[in-house]
Amino acid sequence: MAEQDESRATAYTTLALGDDFRHELEIRRSRFITVLRRAPDEDAARALVAELRKEFHDARHHCSAFVLGPDRVIQRSNDDGEPSGTAGIPMLEALIKRETLPGVTDLSDVSAVVVRHFGGILLGAGGLVRAYSESISAALDSAPLVQRRRLRICDIPVTHNAAGKLENDLRSAGYVMAETSYEPSETILRVALPDDAIAIADAGERLASLTGGASGLQLRGTEWVDLQA
Question: Residue 165 region, left (φ>0) first, then alpha (ψ -120 to 50), else beta?
Fold first, then answer.
C-alpha cells in the first residue's frame, strides 16, 4: 500500500473496500437514493457525482458531500439546486458527526451522493434538511465500515534457522506480520506496529525477550492498513 503523508491522526474509520453502497428512502413520494463510495482523493469523490448524473439523468437533484483524509481536513458539499443549506450541508454534517464508537467521530475518505426523484409534494426547508440528513444516517447504519490505522513497518533481521519459530511467536503474541524477505545470509521478518513510541518500545522489549537480545527492530516507513474485524 502506498505511504501517505504523515498526519496527526493515527487511525480513522472509513468504508470497507468494495462496490458502492446504496440505500433508498421514500419520503412523501420523493425517492432519496443514497450512494456511498470510499474515496481516497477529491477526483474519486467528484467522479461519483458525475457517474450518478449519467445513471440517474432524469432525477431533479444530485446532492453531494464528502470528507477526506485522516485528519478530515477536506470537507465539501453541494446542494445541486435545492434551497441553499438544505441538502449538502446536512449531508456533510451527518458524515462528520457520525459516531463510529461511543464519543468517536472519525469517519473519513467517504463520498456521498443523494439522488432525489421529486414526488410532487414540497417538503419545505426543514423537511429537506431532515430528509437529506436521514438519508445519509440510514445508509451509514447499514454500510460496511472498517478502521484504517497507520502502522510502522519494522524489519527484524534473523538467521534462516530461527525465522520460522520467531514469526510464529510474534503472530501468537498478536503482532501483524508484513511480507518476509529472504536474503542470502539472513531472513528479514517485517512486523507492522501501531505508529507510536510506546508500542514500538514494547515491541522491542518483547523481541529482545524472544531472541535473547539477538535481534532488534529496524524502523522503516508507515502504511495505512485496513484492520479486519
Answer: alpha
User: Nearest-CA neighbor of 80 among 97, 109, 110, 56?
Assistant: 56
Three-class SS state of 82: coil
Output the CA torsion 174→175→178→179 (10° steps): -80
Extract the C-alpha cell encoding 21.
453502497
Measure CA 113 to chain center.
17
Q: Find how far residue 61's CA is from the centre of its chain.
A: 27
Rounded to 5°, angle at Cα 229 from 23 and 171: 160
Residue-wise pLDDT for 81-94, tens only, equals 999 999 999 999 99
Mean pLDDT of the chain: 92
Q: What's the rounded Cα separation, in Å, for the pair 119 and 6?
A: 47
**CB neighbourhood size of 170 (10 A):** 19
For the record, the C-alpha cell of 140 comes out as 451509514
Contacts of 170 (CB under 8 A, 6+ apart): 177, 189, 191, 207, 210
- Kindly calculate the radius of gyration of the chain based on its CA atoms and give it in whole angstroms: 23
Nearest CA to 5 out of 194, 221, 229, 220 is that of 221
pLDDT in tens, 51-70: 999 999 999 999 999 999 99
Q: What is the pLDDT of residue 229?
A: 52
